[in-house]
Structure formats: C-alpha cells, structure tokens
Amino acid sequence: MFVVEKQTMTCSFKPMKSDITGAYTGKIETFGVTLGAVEKGHLVWGVVAKTNDAPAVGALAGKYVGASADAAFGPGLGANVLVGGSNQAFALQPISVEGEIGVNIAAGVTELTLTAGP
User: Fold this and answer.
1) Comparing C-alpha atoms, which of 45, 36, 51, 39 is closest to residue 64?
2) What is the mean pLDDT of residues 76-91?
3) Cα–Cα distance measured from residue 74 to residue 114, given in angstroms and rounded to the nearest whole number
4) Per mean pLDDT, which of 54-63, 75-84, 102-111 is the most reliable?
5) Domain positions in the chain
6) What ranges in the chain are assigned the alpha helix state H?
7) Phi-psi sector, 32: left (phi>0), alpha (psi -120 to 50), beta
8) Which H/E stretch holds residue 113?
9) pLDDT at position 1 over 60
C-alpha cells in the first residue's frame, strides 16, 4: 500500500566543537510503501558537514531528503541518510533508535524539514 506518513519532532543539536546547543522543530514525511505501525520513539542522529568548523546556530534548518528502508519487529532497525540543510551542506544519519516499538516494514523517500526555534 502506498502511503504518506507524517510525524512532528523536537530536536537539539550540540556540535562537538561548541558549547552552544541549537533547538529545532521538525516535520518528517515518508512517501512509499508501509505495512504495520510503530509507536513514537527517540532518535539520535549523527551530523556530517562539508566543513570542519562548528556550524552556526540555526545552520541545520532547511529541507533534507533521502531514500529510506526500515523494519521494526519489536525494537526497530533502519537506514536513512538525509542530505540537505542550508546550502545542502549537511548529511544526517540515524545512529541510535530508542523506544520504536511495533511491527512495521517501510520503504520509500523521506523528507525532513527542520526549523530553528526555541
């Protein structure tokens, strides 16, 4: 079944080379095939930038797009690399998933929009 899944999120980002933490709100949408359902969870993403300098506050804001594949039978596993942000300068890679519980198989295109905020 082809579906569009939408979820909202709150995020914080602390660069390794800075003591300043940036706050973001986000909306993630997956367009594709899905079977089943999962409960809300906690994601930790690795951020890779085109530069070694610490990004400015709010620099991660923007639209990210990538292909996705997920499977959840109890605790979930998946692969999503999303590229985007200001000047397409960032790649986001999930490195930890906590609390994603359910039975679900999904594949498609994922779009994440981050907005800098409180």
Assistant:
1) 45
2) 75
3) 28
4) 54-63
5) 2-53+61-116
6) none
7) left
8) strand 101-116
9) no
Instruction: State what percent of residues in the chain have pLDDT above 90.
Output: 14
* Other CB atoms within 10 Å distance of the CB of residue 85: 22
pTM above 0.70?
Answer: yes
The continuous run of DSSP H or E covering 99 comes out as none
Amino acid of residue 31: F
CA angle 84, 86, 89 (to 5 degrees): 60
Residue with tokens 């039975």: 103
Residue 16 has pLDDT above 90, yes or no: no
- Reduced to 3 states (helix: H, G, I; strand: E, B; else coil), residue 91 is strand
Distances in whole angstroms, Cα of residue 26 to Cα of each of 35, 53, 73, 95, 110 = 24, 24, 26, 18, 13
Residues in the chain: 118
With vertex at residue 34, the alpha carbon angle to CA 32 and CA 39, rounded to the nearest 5 degrees, is 120
Identify the band that residue 15 occupies on the pLDDT scale cut at 50, 70 and 90.
Answer: confident
C-alpha to C-alpha distance for 115 and 60, rounded to whole angstroms? 8
